[in-house]
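Structure tokens please, single chain.
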Amino acid sequence: MHYQWNQAAQGCTSDEASSQLRDVCVHSPGTGSHSGGGEDAALRPSTLPLAGAGRRSDLPGSSFPQHQRVMAPVHAKTNAGTQQARPLDRILPQPDITERFAIQVRAPAPLVLEVAAGLDLQALPLVRGIFRLREQFMGAAPHPRARQGLVQDLAGLGWAIRVAEPGRLIVGGAACQPWNPDVVFRPLDPDGFATYTEPDQVKIAWTLESEPLGPELTRFATETRAVATDAATRKKFRRYWRWSRFGIIAIRLLLLPAIRKEAERCFRRRMDGSAP
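Here you go.
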């Protein structure tokens, strides 16, 4: 079974995908917003080798993504041993939690990001099951979700999404009260994170990162950071996070191999189609 993704044709070029992604990088209506505006050029991250690369979980062909869970800012190290900033360092430099996952993919970086942005989470049965378990456990109202790509789906939920670097980096941000059964997301543009201080909120930012390791090899990573806007909210959020992180981590562990499988399949198909 092939995973569904929201490009109309699987031959869609990376330039076309970037253009489509820009179309959804807007604040969703009806959710409330706090935007600092700014241009995409204001967020220009360096390429990011993942600390610990070379362990078995990060080698090409490995079945599992690499996972880092920390409770403070983290940095990657270059081959020279110096620290490199990560994309979220400027947005959330002192998060309460950080979750980072990475996997290597035998496909070009722009294609991997295109597939990641368009992958339909609802096509993964175990992910659908995790969402249903949360609804039942929290007593949330069922919310049927359209079968669409990841970025389009998140934009529809209220996330502010920016293509920070076409073919390389997508950043999403929102504020919410994640412990509520029915979570309402308030879109936060990356430039608005520092100035948003409304009490009883948790600011969350995430990335989709596609780092080329070669013409046909990519390290794909996704990082999520969150920080509460006040001390009382931080205690509430940490209580929630103690149990909710298991489902969140499970979704990432299911998502990354699905992205790799679809990106490598799509790349093989394109190469076969271009063969003389």
